[in-house]
Design goal:
449 residues; alpha/beta; N-utilizing Substance Protein B Homolog, Chain A; Rossmann fold; 2 domains; eight-stranded mixed sheet; four-stranded antiparallel sheet; 13% strand; binds S-adenosylmethionine; RNA binding; MeTrfase_RsmB-F_NOP2_cat; RCMT
Length: 449
């Protein structure tokens, strides 16, 4: 539930219509910001619920509110030094004006109004950025110029614990920061159509899609938010939304058209659908099958709806309710374990999570991940494949889980993989967000001897 925050109207004089509107936006953004921070719930969820209840906001209002809020989280590692209270005070307005500058938002009348409110306090004399800021370093320099009594550096845009649990090479650190402070495009995957057919179909509805250079079924849909339900190709299951990093997992699984696969942690089936699509691309009457399991029932229902939308047969669900295998042991050509994890690799899309979570989110799932992997491995048949994946960027959830598993299960051996974006050969593959403008992922593939 969102509590109304204290109104700034009394303290700050709004004369012009733009200033009045800027105050009203500030009020809403502040309510949402406090609500996310205090309730520790994802901003996406809080904002979605707020707009569902408050229908008064038009599409422009929603854009200003949403983008300002997400930008606050993206740059919070710096802004928390500026705004140290929970009030809508001058420091709050300074932050609103700063994020509009940092992300070159296209509402100068509101960012100007926020700057004027901030500058009503003797504490500030903020000025507009003299040019569009494109890199994190440019932005850092701008902030350092604005505040002589504070100092800012790039690494603090991610929580300190992230650097401890992630082991980023020094050479990659700046690129990782840049990626983590920008948004990836919306990535889609062509299902039941070729990439070219999908691009043409979307173009006929004025939606620009660009073919990925890496996979022949992947497309980038750019950065603008899309109403999927208004897109025929989506309604017909010809297009699925799936991050390109996530698509790497299905490509590494590389299921053959006649194979039996078990997706043990399928959720709502992003990867199940990809596996089936990859089978059908080889043979339109592929005899292969996929069994999808999850501890939660609801996502499995959603998965079946998505499969129906695409007209896919060959997918069944088997809820996983106890320690016992929900499928037959030693019977699958391939088993995919897309394990529950900290999701640090998805922080580009959910910048709030880096400030809501703590290091324990990375360290506390190792035993569960190892347990799910160990139990899932029992379903792999001789010469079959076992694929372990997460959307975490930490070796604790990735390499350490795989190594602990291999230490106890000598019948499995790691396969060498080719990194699809860099061409590097490796057995333990981390997809870093900066390599191809994606979420971060990890994958390892093992063969049962
Ligand atoms: C990373 S998500 C899966 C995402 C999904 N594969 C996709 O591509 O959309 C991890 C899933 O593991 C499930 N899960 C958590 N604990 C589990 C367990 N003990 N057994 C099976 N599934 C579990 C969660 O419900 C969640 O849906």
């Amino acid at each position: 539930m969102i509590e109304p925050s204290s109104s700034p109207q009394d303290a700050f004089q709004a004369g012009t219509p733009a200033q009045k509107r800027a105050l009203s936006y500030s009020n809403t953004i502040h309510q949402l910001f406090i609500s996310v921070m205090n309730e520790k719930l994802p901003a996406d969820r809080i904002v979605g619920e707020y707009f569902r209840i408050n229908k008064k906001h038009g599409s422009k209002d929603r854009r200003v509110i949403r983008e300002s809020l997400f930008a606050l989280f993206r740059w919070w590692g710096w802004l928390k030094k500026v705004h140290t209270s929970e009030q809508q005070d001058a420091t709050w307005f300074a932050c609103l004006s700063l994020v509009a500058e940092l992300e070159a938002h296209k509402w100068p009348q509101f960012s100007e109004a926020w700057r004027e409110f901030a500058n009503q306090s003797a504490e500030f004399s903020l000025s507009q950025a003299s040019q569009i800021l494109t890199s994190v370093s440019d932005r850092c320099e701008y902030l350092n110029q604005q505040f002589s009594h504070l100092s800012f550096n790039d690494a603090e845009l991610l929580p300190e614990w992230f650097w401890t649990v992630s082991q980023v090479n020094d050479a990659d650190k700046q690129a990782v920061i840049e990626a983590m402070c920008s948004r990836p495009p919306i990535w889609g995957r062509a299902q039941t159509l070729t990439q070219e057919q999908l691009i043409a179909s979307l173009a006929s509805k004025d939606i620009v899609a660009i073919a990925s250079e890496f996979f022949d079924d992947a497309v980038s849909l750019g950065h603008k938010s899309i109403n999927l339900n208004a897109i025929d190709a989506y309604q017909r299951g010809e297009l699925e939304i799936q991050d390109l990093g996530s698509q790497v997992i299905g490509q590494i699984c590389a299921p053959k058209a006649d194979e039996q696969w078990w997706d043990t942690c399928s959720g709502a089936g992003g990867k199940t659908l990809q596996l089936r699509s990859l089978m059908l691309r080889q043979d339109s009457s592929a005899s292969g099958e996929i069994v999808s399991s999850d501890i939660r029932r609801k996502p499995l229902e959603e998965l079946l709806k998505r499969a129906k939308r695409a007209g896919f047969n060959g997918i069944t669900t088997a809820p996983w309710k106890s320690d016992d295998l929900p499928v037959k042991a030693s019977s699958f050509d391939g088993v995919l374990v897309d394990a529950p994890c900290s999701c640090t690799g998805t922080w580009r899309r959910n910048p709030d999570m880096r400030w809501l979570d703590e290091a324990s989110v990375v360290t506390d799932k190792h035993a569960l991940q190892l347990d799910i992997l160990t139990r899932s491995a029992k379903a792999v048949k001789s010469q079959g494949q076992l694929v372990y994946a997460t959307c975490s960027l930490s070796p604790i959830e990735n390499e350490q889980v795989v190594n602990a598993f291999l230490a106890e299960n000598s019948e499995f051996e790691l396969q060498t993989l080719t990194h699809p974006f860099t061409g590097e050969q490796t057995q333990l593959l981390t997809i870093w967000p900066h390599e191809a403008d994606t979420d971060g992922m990890f994958v390892a593939k093992m063969k049962k001897r």
